Amino acid sequence: MNKLLTAVLCAVLCSELAAGIPLGDASAGISSSASSGLSRAATSTSSDAAAKPSPTVPYASDDPNYWLWNETTTTDPEPIRGSLGGSILGPQNVPLDKQNPDLLAPPTTDNGDVGNAKWPFGLSKNRLVAGGWIRTQNVEQMPLSTAMAGANIRLEPGAIRELHWHNVAEWAYVLEGSTQITSVDQLGRNYVATVNKGDLWYFPPGIPHSLQATNDSATGTEFLLIFNSGTFGDSNTFLLTDWLAHTPKEVIAKNFQDDIEDWDQIPGRDLYIFPGIALPSDQKPPEDPFGTIPQPFSFEFSKVEPTRYPGGSVKIADSTTFSIAKEIAVAEVTVEPGAMRALHWHPTQDEWGLFLEGNARATIYAASGNAQTFDYQPGDISYVPTGWGHYIENTGNTTLRFLEIFNTAVFEDVSLEQWLALTPPALVKQHLQLSDSTIAKFNKTKNYVVGPKSSSS
């Protein structure tokens, strides 16, 4: 009986000791990097030691997850990362795989699925017309982009995007050349302006307007349009010529108090984009008894001085500076080689992005263990839904430049580093097992862009 009691007591004692051992100590599947982390934690000094590791999970792996090739490499890409994967035996689209190293050989930190967050404008069907072209992107091309849609338009010198309106807001960024815009609002006030490279325009929903390339450049103009609806497309545009072509001429003549013969030569269908005669860049609107529109529909974003950070710069235009733009805001970001747009998320709005220069990658974290990394080149569109954590890293050897565009009146983001820097250190320590000295170095001021770690750090 005494032997039985002794055996029971020993079993209970052993089970209690085993329950106190972290999983990382006993797990046979833990990586060597995690094991070395445990060793480092055990030898830390008591005054600066990290909090004890969680008893329920192993440490995150230290396995390298850099991009495996870029535009400077010459070897054919393969779906191999470390001991994982294998070569491609069947057909391979090598140029496409070279552009997407983190899709072909994803980082081991990727998991699950977030949906497609990349769409090259070059894959959108292009509509060619006399005087230019247009290509679009909406939920049909990228189902993730539910809050915004984009269009890329090119106009030859003098060409006109005809008088029209939409039921959603239109926001624009001029990529090249100069574009003359005209508009009349619901109170009969008019507006004419020439919008240059790097500048913006904005038309509220329902406000009629036109777009015309000036003769300032022999190549005309090209611009990006954003609409604050992911389902927006050509079928949602109301065109002057299309409306009149589908209205009885007797009604048109009665409306304007004219003879019906005066309307004999109106177009029988929409003009959409058509060649025209460019007006002077300093064209003034007709004299208006109601005055001109008081809040300008254009904004000289190119003249805004960016805020500079180690590794890049940011400048922002929203309703606090471009007052008429109540539904769309933008940040133009530059990132130097080796630097990155810092880890962050946007608490109230989706992010629609366009890459203008350089090469990048971004890992998008969508909660519940889902994360995926994408690679971007000039002309690529990115999309990150509200609240999803991400960064944008320069993977090339030239300056990266891109636009972050939001369906909102005011730009907002939350910085991961600033959040942790302003949270009680003891709480951060218990979550992440970081030392006091590491936590103390966190920046309490938001850095939109962070440079490579300096050798003295």
Describe the structure.
A hairpin with a 2-residue loop joins strand 4 and strand 5. The protein starts with a helix and ends in a 7-residue tail after the last strand. The radius of gyration is 29 Å and the shape is elongated. It is built from 10 helices and 28 strands. Helices cover 17% and strands 30% of the residues. The chain is of the alpha+beta class. The N terminus is likely disordered. Strands 3-24-21-26-19-18-17 form a 7-stranded antiparallel beta sheet, with no helix packed on it. Strands 4-5-6-13-8-11-16 form a 7-stranded antiparallel beta sheet, with no helix packed on it. Strands 7, 9, 10, 12, 14 and 15 form a 6-stranded antiparallel beta sheet that branches.
Mean pLDDT: 89
Strand coverage percent? 25-35%
Determine the number of helices (DSSP H or I, runs of at least 4 residues). 10
Structural class: alpha+beta
Cα radius of gyration in angstroms: 29 Å
Distance between the termini: 66 Å
Q: How much helix is in the residues?
A: 10-25%
Shape: elongated
The largest sheet is: 7 strands, antiparallel
Q: Count every beta strand, where a strand is a DSSP E run of 2 or more residues.
A: 28
Please list the strands of the largest sheet in the order they lie side by side: 3-24-21-26-19-18-17
Which spans of ≥5 residues are poorly predicted at pLDDT below 50? 1-47
